[in-house]
Specification:
Length: 130
């Protein structure tokens, strides 16, 4: 937070900081984007955030995961298509998304991108567990 380097009158207020931190906690993938854009964050923080994000992602239901990426409208379609666990969702392809009923290209891309992140978390979880 380089905001403390600024003039005192332009620094964020406490409630603004709390709001920002709350958003980062509720959406760990946004923290990853923030870390990737800033070279000042230590590797330890990045690794810790990745482990925390993996734990959070893997403990969610499919509906909660879809809600967290703002795609909750597809929860029922995923369930009807047999994708009722994150393990099965992690194996989905673009073709599976189309068959389930995700027809908008932007939504397909967003879901596939998040599925790829989930795969990384699953691999990290298996590596840490071993």
């Amino acid at each position: 937070m380089d905001c403390w380097q600024r003039e005192r009158s332009t620094r964020p207020k406490f409630d603004e900081i709390v709001c920002l931190l709350d958003k980062l906690i509720r959406n760990p993938s946004s923290l990853k984007k923030l870390v990737n854009s800033s070279h000042r964050v230590s590797n330890l923080l990045v690794e810790h955030a990745s482990v925390e994000a993996a734990h959070t992602t893997l403990s969610q239901s499919v509906g909660e995961w879809l809600d967290s990426i703002k795609m909750g409208r597809y929860t029922e379609l995923f369930m009807e298509g047999g994708f009722s666990s994150l393990e099965t969702v992690a194996q989905m392809t673009s073709e599976d998304l189309r068959q389930v009923g995700v027809n908008l290209a932007g939504h397909q891309k967003k879901i596939i991108t998040n599925i790829q992140e989930m795969r990384v978390h699953l691999i990290n979880k298996n590596t840490v567990t071993m």
